[in-house]
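Chain A, query sequence.
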Amino acid sequence: NLPPVRMGLLTKLNLLTVGLVLFTVVATTGFYLWQQLRDEEAGLRAQGRTVATMLAELSERGLQADDRAAVNAVLDSLPPEGDIAYVAVLDARQNQIAERRFGDAMSTVSLPPARLPQGTAAPAIAAADVRVQGQRFIDFVAPVRGAPTTVAALAPGAGGDATAHFADAGLAAGGPIGYIRVGMTFERQQAQFRKLLAGGSTLAALLVLLAVASAILLTKRLVSPMRRLVRASSAVGAGRLDVFVPPASSDELGHLTHAFNQMTQRLAVSQSEVEGYQRTLEDKVAQRTRELEVATAQAMKLAQHDILTGLPNRS
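Chain A, predicted structure.
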């Protein structure tokens, strides 16, 4: 008897096919989503640097003239929709002189201290990831540098108060006259990521279902001839040589089926020849037995009677 089958070949092939398809779909979708997140974050950082640089250039005259109305006018020109969460303008002493917040979630949020760019050799923009009440932001701080003019040129005829003011501002020393702080939010990227994730999950589920259906049909067509061969082999093992398995294809399985049919036909012919030889041998044995019986009877008769007269011999 054949040993019991714990896991059929059809099940193994289905599991292998579904596993490979699932791994491919998940890996491809994950890589695509990761690439989208990376590109979106890179774009958001580039946008934040551009906005900070632009606001620093536009706010330079207002900060240099200590004109807060001009600074507020620059901030009012920003669109309320977009990736900007907040904008703040700081003077040289890092005191906030103007601020704009966008979105209801930022109205009651207290911002962490700004991380100012280090060094005065180049107008670098400092960027840092901050979290405020569970929300992630990219905080950009750009220095605002005034024109390289002297205090006298900036305030002709001004007294010591003006000189002290600009000296405190660091303008005479060539330092920043203020800072622009811009916070970029990931809210739009997160919403887009959720849409991509939902769409990718739906597409992955559809692909997996399609792959499972295709795998079941293909493996069933592949395994069905093998199952017929297994049943035919069991019948041959039980002594039946009249089985015939019709070839279902012209591939390797079809060749195997054809070879199996040839084998059973040759076994059937060999068995018929053996049975014929056996019957012939039995007939010859029976004939020889009859001849031996006749010869034995004649020998007994010769032993008991005279050959010439036919009379019984004396004891």
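DSSP finds seven helices and five strands in the chain. The beta strands are 84-91, 96-101, 126-132, 135-145, 176-185.
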